[in-house]
Amino acid sequence: MSRRVVSPLDPPKGTDAYERIYDVVRAIPEGRVATYGQVAALAGLKGHARQVGYALHALDDDDVPWQRVVNAKGEISARSDPGSEPLQRVMLEDEGVVFDERGRISLSRFRWDP
User: Fold this and answer.
1) Phi, psi angle pair for 6, to nearest 5°
2) How remote is the C-alpha of 111 from its chain's centroid?
3) Are 103 and 25 in contact (CB under 8 A)?
4) CA torsion angle 110 66 95 89 (round to 10)
5) 20-65 residue pLDDT tens
6) From the DSSP assignment, how many helices (H) and strands (E) are in the chain?
7) How far apart are CA 65 and CA 22, in angstroms?
8) Were both Cys, which of 41, 57, 58, 61 would link to 13 (CB 3.0–4.6 Å)?
9) How are beta strands 69-70 and 34-35 bridged, if at all?
10) Where residue 78 falls among pLDDT bands split at 50, 70, 90?
11) DSSP conformation letters of 45-66
């Protein structure tokens, strides 16, 4: 029988780390984006950008604007759920975020600076 070891970098949904991540994401204003790494740092989890992705994947709360989190290149990251990338782009465009011809967001223009 194998026992699953829970890593401190991947806490179960509902833990304090996930709540801190969700609080940061809720603070991102409409028309702005933040990177996974930026969210992690603001949540007190510097260096754990991947944990932000895990938290957003586990999300089942409509009041967290997950669409405002992008990767460090200003791109929408691929997901395991087919079709969520175009949805994220449409949601961001509806907020006034502009994508260039490569599908990137200008972080110098749209990155949230709390």
Assistant:
1) -90, 120
2) 13
3) no
4) 90
5) 999 999 999 999 999 999 999 999 999 999 999 999 988 887 899 9
6) 5, 2
7) 9
8) 58
9) parallel
10) confident
11) -TT-HHHHHHHHHT---TTS-G
Q: Exposure of 94 by Cβ count < 10 A (0-12 exposed, 13-18 middle, 19+ buried)?
A: exposed
Is the pTM of the predicted complex or chain greater than 0.70? yes
Non-local (6+) Cβ contacts of 84 within 8 A are none
Arithmetic mean of pLDDT over the chain: 88
Please give the DSSP secondary-structure letter assigned to residue 5: P
Amino acid at the residue 101 = E
Residue with tokens 């833990």: 15
